Each structure stands twice: as C-alpha cells, then as structure tokens.
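Dear H.,

Thanks for agreeing to be a second pair of eyes. The structure we're designing against is below in token form, covering all 118 positions.
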C-alpha cells in the first residue's frame, strides 16, 4: 500500500486518541498520510490540513474519526476528492451519514481502519 494517500479526518496530536493511532498505524504501513483537523498544526511530525479540500492532488482513502454530525458536513468535500475508500470508524456512523454518502456516490466501509490494517 506504499504511496497511497490517506486522509485521516479528525486526526489528533493526542497519542491516546484513535485519530492519532490511525496516523501512526498508516505511517508504519507506508501510506502517505494527510492528517486533517482545523485545530492542529502538526501531528506526528506531519503538516495538518485544515480541510480535506486543502490536500493537494488525489486522495485514495478517507478515514473518518469525527462525530457523525461533523462527518455529514464534510461528505461533499470528501466526494470531490473521489476516494476509492471511505472508512467510517466506530463512533462516526449514522444512518443519515450513510444515506448522504451513498447519494454522493461514495461506498462507506463500516469498520475500524486500524484493525483492518492488521
């Protein structure tokens, strides 16, 4: 998976939070990690993007670590990046988010992206 771009939306500098654990897990697997959080500057030495739209170029995977209400508001920007995968991690899921994601042509994956890495 080396070189694939993943946006970790809701990334955190707090190493106890799953938004940080995901950043570290994907880095270890060789992904090009793009942390997204409007309240952070750097996470694990990486520059943080304020929004997913700020990430230059394509994004292969999006992993959501934000509450469903926030994720719902981000779906159009996520769809604009045309990712091949959108992971809805535990705590980020909702029926409204899933319905809107599907309307936008996204096929959400309901699972923990960290566990899926192995």
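And this is the sequence the design step returned. I haven't edited it by hand at all.
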């Amino acid at each position: 998976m080396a070189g694939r771009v993943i946006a970790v939306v809701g990334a955190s500098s707090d190493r106890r939070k799953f938004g940080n654990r995901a950043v570290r897990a994907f880095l270890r697997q060789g992904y090009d990690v793009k942390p997204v959080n409007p309240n952070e500057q750097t996470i694990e030495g990486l520059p943080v993007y304020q929004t997913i739209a700020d990430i230059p170029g394509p994004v292969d995977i999006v992993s959501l670590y934000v509450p469903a209400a926030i994720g719902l508001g981000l779906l159009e920007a996520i769809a604009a990046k045309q990712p091949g995968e959108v992971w809805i991690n535990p705590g980020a899921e909702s029926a409204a988010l899933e319905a809107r994601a599907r309307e936008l042509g996204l096929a959400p994956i309901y699972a923990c992206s960290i566990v899926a890495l192995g």
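Two observations from my side: The first helix runs from residue 18 to 28. Residues 5-117 form a domain with the Rossmann fold fold (CATH 3.40.50.720).

Warmly,
E.
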